[in-house]
Amino acid sequence: MCSGASAAAFANMAVQSLQAFVQKQRQEADLAQQRANLANQAKYEEYQAKLKENQVLQNEYDTRRELRTLQRKYAQQDGSRLSLMGASGVETNTGSALDVLLDSTSNQTEDLFGIRNQAKREQQALAYEASLLRTRAANTKKQSRDRRTFLEKGLEYYQLANQMSPSMNTFFSSYGE
User: Fold this and answer.
1) What's the CA gap between 51 and 53, in Å, rounded?
2) What is the DSSP string of 46-93?
3) 103 to each of 69, 99, 106, how far by Cα in Å?
4) pLDDT, tens digit, for every residue of 125-158?
5) Is the pLDDT of residue 34 over 90?
6) N or C of the chain: less Cβ packing under 10 Å?
7) The predicted structure's pLDDT at residue 152
8) Angle between the N-to-C axes of helices 4-87 and 150-175, in degrees from 0 to 180, rounded to the nearest 10
């Protein structure tokens, strides 16, 4: 039969084991919450990446529309110049009149080139941001899956065994008496 001390030691061990179990359950719940948070964060980062990609497409569309508008405007200006010069009796294929038309065309081409380059830089920056967000999302997904490594699990069980060890030693030493 067990003595009172051994029964108390057994009860103490049972309480400590229960406390360790409850603590482990809390850790598991916290870990599940962290995984869920990381999964949500990954989804948010994917969404942000899609937004950036859509901005790239919108930028391309806006740039094409702006270029078409400017080309029409420049064609109208060139036509107006030519008609005014023709109405004035100026020959448009020689001398100063030709220089004016060539300078105008050159300036227009530079404007269009500048707009294309600016749009390309903006698109590259947005594409780079989208790429970074996709990479972060992938890393976050991986982190949520690999939240507990094998070593972490082993460490938790080792700590649990150490918590139970003193009460087990007390129980078994008093049981043998």
Assistant:
1) 5
2) HHHHHHHHHHHHHHHHHHHHHHHHHHHHHHHHHHHHHHHHHHTT--TT
3) 20, 6, 5
4) 999 999 999 999 998 888 877 765 544 666 666 6
5) no
6) N
7) 60
8) 170
